[in-house]
Amino acid sequence: MRKILPVILLFAMLFNSAGYYIVYEFDRYLIHREVAYLLEHGCFDHELSVFSVFNPAADQAFRRVDTREIVYHGNLYDIVKEVPKGRIITFYCIHDNKEEALIDGMKSMHQNKKAQNLLQHLVTIALPVTTSHPHPQETINIVYPLLSVRFTDHAEIPFSPPPEKS
Q1: The whole model's pTM is what?
Q2: What is the pLDDT at residue 118?
Q3: Which segments of the chain have a pLDDT < 50?
Q4: I want to staple 93 with a disulfide (CB 3.0 to 4.6 A). Which of 39, 77, 128, 131 is the partner?
C-alpha cells in the first residue's frame, strides 16, 4: 500500500500537467476514425466541398497537413477525392468542423495566461542572476530574467551603540 499511493499521486500529477495532450491525441484519433468510417460507407456525398487549386505549392492559402487532410483559406478539410489536371488539382473534400473545434481548444489552452504568469513567477524567483561590483557595499544589482531591481545595502548606515548600564 505504501508503494501504490506515491505511484497514484505521481500519475495524477503527470496527468494534470500532460493529460490534455493525451486526451487531445485520443480525441483526434477518434475523429479520424469516424470520418474514415463515414467515407467508406458514402455518408458524406451531400456535404462535399469542391474547389480547384492552381499550383498548390505556390498558393499561400493552401497547405497540405498530411495525405488525407488540407487547410484551405484557414479551414480544415478531409480529402475524399483528388483529381489532378496539369497544374490544377480539384479537391472533393469534407469540412472538418470537429477537428477544428478540437484544435481551437488546444490553442486556447496554450494561450492561458494564468499558466504563463505562474511559470514566469517561478522563473523569476528560482533563477536570479547577480552581478558583482568592485565595491559590494555600495549597491547590489540583482537581475531577473524579465525584471531588474536595484537594492541598496543598508549596512552602510552607522548604528549607535547600545546605552551603557550605570
Answers
A1: 0.56
A2: 63
A3: 133, 136, 147-151, 153-155
A4: 77
